[in-house]
Amino acid sequence: MPMSDETPGVQPARLLELQNTAVVLLDGDLRLQYLNPAAENLFQVSRRQITGQAWSAVVSVSAGVRAHLLDALERQLSFTERELELSTASGEAMVVDFTVTATSPGELLLEIVRRDRYIRIAQEEQLLTQQRAAREFLRGMAHEIKNPLGGLRGAAQLLESELRDEEQKEYTRVIMREADRLRNLVNRMLGPNDLPHKQMMNIHQVLEHVRSLVDAERNDDVELVREYDPSIPELYADAEQLIQAVLNLVRNAVQSGASRIVLRSRTQRQITIGQQRYRLAVRIDIIDNGKGIDDDMKEQIFYPMVTGRAEGTGLGLSIAQTMVNQHNGIIEFTSEPGNTVFTIFLPLEEA
């Protein structure tokens, strides 16, 4: 018997309505008989509008999964699919755990738990932990390096004051210049030390400033495409730090050999960054068609001194991540040849 909104046939209606797990009931023709609120939210559909329609009107699954559903109906079986890839009618892809139970002849109960959000949260936690560990390591290393560098430079200065020959003084100046260069390198590895100077700002002013800087660097063979959402509210942030972070990501895309770079802005609702939940965040995507990131570098791409280019310092991505972290945000990425996406998430509210 089909399940109504008022009297679900499997469990008391109140329990299903309060569950966080998405619950769907299908009939023998795989038509939707019931969705609880969690399922409506997951698939972004209205129960009243979708009831009675084919399951495929809400979600697209493989032929193999459809065959399993029909087999479960016919033989009154139950089964579970782990980390199943689904596509909703709106085109959103997701990874879910999918449990199917034949509750009675001609009815299937589906319990669906979205997994990609949990996977993403775990990956973010790992990324933030790596970033903190790297900074602690660098702080200790910086102390061990800067102390002898200071002594080396001081000794060179004293020696220069005793020398009369200008040609000999040039050697001490080389020592001092190289000591200063190494100290500056260590400071850059540590990232920005100043706290952000925040004020209300429009994120598109940051993106446009970066675009003008990249244009000024005469990258004539690179097409910069803008896909902005003008409805994004103002952000409380340090514009200079965000300009530097986005600029580092765009320059990285240019250096990857990209001929097309897309700057995209969107809002993201109900997002978890680290262990903090935010109602609304700005999402900035930097998308390029360059060569991509080698698989063996993906795990440590945000570490200082990690680079795939012989002439690179490996500091650009590390500094960008640090600056975004100071705004309670995070940078994530996906990469394959011809399609690399670096995504900046910035909360629009304080934690």
What's the CATH class of the largest domain, please? Alpha Beta
Count of folded domains? 3
**Annotation field: number of helices:** 9
The SSE string, one letter per element, is: HEEHHEHEEEHHEHEEHEEHEE
Indicate the percent of residues in helices: 40-55%
The CATH superfamily name of the largest domain is: Histidine kinase-like ATPase, C-terminal domain
Structural class: alpha+beta
Which regions are unreliable across 5 or more consecutive residues at pLDDT < 50?
1-11
Kindly state the mean pLDDT as a whole number? 81
Just name the CATH architecture of the largest domain.
2-Layer Sandwich
Biggest β-sheet: count, sense, barrel? 6 strands, antiparallel
Dominant shape: elongated
Q: Whole-number radius of gyration? A: 28 Å
Strand content: 25-35%
Task: Count all strands and give the number.
Answer: 13
State the CATH topology of the largest domain: Heat Shock Protein 90
Q: Name the strands of the widest sheet in spatial order.
A: 2-1-6-5-4-3
